[in-house]
Amino acid sequence: MIKIPKIIERPTSQAVYLAALQLNLTPLQATLVAKRLSETDSIEQIVFPKLKHIQHPSTLKNSLAAAHIISDAIAANGLIVLATDYDTDGVTSAWVAMTALVHYFNVPAHKVVHIIGERKAGYGITDEVCDRILALNQPVSLVISADQGSSDEPRIARLKAAGIAVCVTDHHQMPIDGAPQSAVCTVNPQQAGCDYDKTVAGCFVIFLVMTQVRQVLIERGLLAADSPSLKALALNVALGTIADSVSLKSPNNRAIVQSGLQFINQFTVPAWQAVKQLNDNQGEPFNAEFLAFQVATRINAASRVSDVTTAFNFLNAAHLSEAQRHLQQLDDDNQDRRHQQQAMLAQAQDLAQALYHNQKYSLALKLQGNAGIQGIIATRIGEAYGLPCVAMTDLKDGYLAGSGRGIVKHIDLRHAFQWMADQEPGLFKSMGGHAGAAGCMIKLEHYDIFSALFEQAIKLQIGDQPPVPIIETDGQLSEAQLTPNLINELAQLEPYGREWPQPLFNGEFEIVEVKAVGQTQTHLSFKLKQASGKWIQAIYFNAKQSAQDPIEFTPGERIRCVYQASLNRYNGRVSLQLRLQWAAAM
């Protein structure tokens, strides 16, 4: 039985509220800011993000050293190999590096080789990636990793032994032993002695490194002093940053996302022109939520069910027709992913129900299916039970690949995995990630040991009281506030994301009408009556697990719900619609 969530209102900082009012925010906007910040430091940079607020790359440890190494490789005759992760952060990291090298630094395209690891082979610079690099039939001047590499010392050592230098750029937490010793340079804000923002994504790190490369090339006379800055690359740095769910309370992340969205909404790039033709967001500008759910899902689908290079080729498309062709394949992949996800989710729900009891601290699910979908499963099951969750897939080669999601506030999955490795040396074939999301690979026969240690690791972090699902809201809105103007008021505090969450409100309404809708018939459409008698439209996505499940709501009864505000456009009319995140009869 899934636990009923505890609904709590986020606390409000009075000092932040008053400071926000001084910035000419409305009372509602000031309240939302005061529920997301506890101190007034950097409030203006957070509320009004700008590129000028970005922390200077010189404070990113080793970024200048990396810039000199990359500049040397540009001047040399060998290949420059980009080795990146397969998710959206990895693909956008590759795009940033490729675009900077070829289109800004005039490196011949044939001199830059991009190698994305296969999801089925696991995260990081794997042996499979090494094999592909060593198989290249031309000398390699430098391998640049992006969004990976910090935990890959054995494979980097293998490349070093073959005479190939590796420069690591990454953002994931560092292993206990520190930066990989065999790398010629490691740029990672997580490493000891680095004062840079720890929350930035991998694509942001390589972006900062490439801005340093530009300066070095200018100093060496290899690039004109008036050569274009790299700020236009922010459009896909924004995509990668949003997709990787890093903190959007960080002034750095807010600034790069805000700037990137401005570039995206100019629609001068074929990839984004193609997205607009596929889905114009009902005429509204693309925002962070649109990028997360309409674009990143399609980018990620490529590595989950098909060929990850489709996503990279889509971002790099030179013409609209080329971008449309790749986007159509990504859309097809995403539809395939949805079908596979539905089957795996049903399997996971049965397993979770069998494993759960009221003293459970975690869930580790051993599944059959596509390893590329397990991260989504870990999120959905973890949120349903309010527990940290690792979804593991049998790779049919003696190993399980796992994707974990922390779910519970203050849980550090990467630290949990490290503790488990200390207790049981040899448990992991590989592991990596950060506090909220981490991945691993273990032997199939180690699943029971993994499950027991994972439960212990989470209990050590939480304490003696098992976690319960918690939904934090921003309180209730008055009927007068429930108008389309509310959307404009909320939009002024964009971008929303992790640690700067989309405003979420709670309320009570009477059901006038409810019906199943959508292709899968798992969504519910409501007409809800307010206290004044006026009704308002609401939609509850994935309210049912399957089309065959009964509708658990009845016209005439009252419900308590948690919702986001959204717009509904129908027959030329625009009205406010509640997007329910949770609802239950009273």
Describe the structure.
It is a single chain. With 586 residues, this protein is of the alpha/beta class. Helices cover 39% and strands 20% of the residues. It is built from 18 helices and 17 strands. The strands form four sheets. A five-stranded parallel β-sheet has the order 3-2-4-5-6, with helices on both faces. A five-stranded mixed β-sheet has the order 7-8-9-11-10. The chain is globular. The two termini are 19 Å apart.
Itemize the secondary structure elements and their pairings.
Layout: E1 6-9, H1 14-22, H2 27-34, H3 43-47, H4 63-75, E2 79-84, H5 88-104, E3 112-116, H6 127-134, E4 140-146, H7 153-161, E5 166-169, E6 185-187, H8 202-219, H9 234-243, H10 251-264, H11 270-278, H12 288-305, H13 309-315, H14 320-355, E7 363-367, H15 374-385, E8 389-394, E9 399-405, H16 413-423, E10 428-433, E11 437-443, H17 447-462, E12 470-473, H18 485-491, E13 505-517, E14 523-529, E15 535-540, E16 558-570, E17 573-585
Parallel strand pairs: 1-12, 2-3, 2-4, 4-5, 5-6, 7-8, 15-17
Antiparallel strand pairs: 8-9, 9-11, 10-11, 13-14, 13-16, 14-15, 16-17
Helix pairs in contact: 1-2, 4-8, 5-8, 5-9, 6-7, 8-9, 9-10, 9-12, 11-14, 12-13, 12-14, 13-14, 14-15, 16-17
